[in-house]
Amino acid sequence: MQRKSLAIATPVGSFKGAFAHGVLTALEEAGIVADAYAAASSSVIPASWAAIGRAKDLGINYWLAGLSALELPQQNMSKVVQRGIRVFSKQLRQDLYQPQTPTLFIATNAVINPTAAAHTQTPLAQDLGKRLLRASVQKDRSWVDANLRFTLFSTHHSDSHHRITPTNYPAVAYASSRIMHAWEIPAWIDGKPYVDAAYTCLCPVLAMVAEGYQETIAIANEPGTMYRDMFHIEQIPSHLHGIPIHVIRPDVHLKQLGVDFTKATPDGLVAVYRHGRDKGAEFVSKWR
What we know:
CATH class: Alpha Beta
Radius of gyration: 17 Å
CATH topology: Cytosolic phospholipase A2 catalytic domain
Number of helices: 12
Mean pLDDT: 95
């Protein structure tokens, strides 16, 4: 089932990304192939494999491998994410750049001044990240507005965004996931500082509308209202500039199934992935 000018956007969420991966698998099984896949944070690797038509092949074992790695001595989320990117991006080095492969977009945030870089790329970042979490509760995004710029990378050349190459893919993928309060290792792309997409973008579906895609599917990792960013100020609408935005979301908070951002159980990951497949299949059955 090929649809023209369709973009599928996947969200941030660390281990909660197993839900989005399940949805991608269901869409793939239904024969739905998007013209573009746009990802942020933990959904980058699953979305990349969806772009080459192999989300199902990656499957739940990807998440179980990450959980197992995190339980090893002297491991943390930064190291586990970087290792996962290295291991699971090998297959992408050729397939992702073929002419017939859908465009992959990865959302990040560029750090736009030296003072902010000194805070985001050093041990000061953890305290800054915690302050931004508190600021999100107050819906105060002033630091983000002054110091970060939402930045898209893509596998196809365009003047409107930066290029993903086989060389910089690991750095771009890691930068998209580098949330400061929990990730210790700083993120650099081509010598420039970056941080997690979530500070300005929980799911890059609005960016896909801006890129000109005529229909979009956004995957959420929580029930209820979907917001633009972690400050929960701007809601994701059902339509933007006449373009429909379809949202696939879980029925329950994923923590109830045993999965939180940086904590999960093997059974929880399996349950969340399966719930994503079920919700994806349900969406397909109702979609036009």
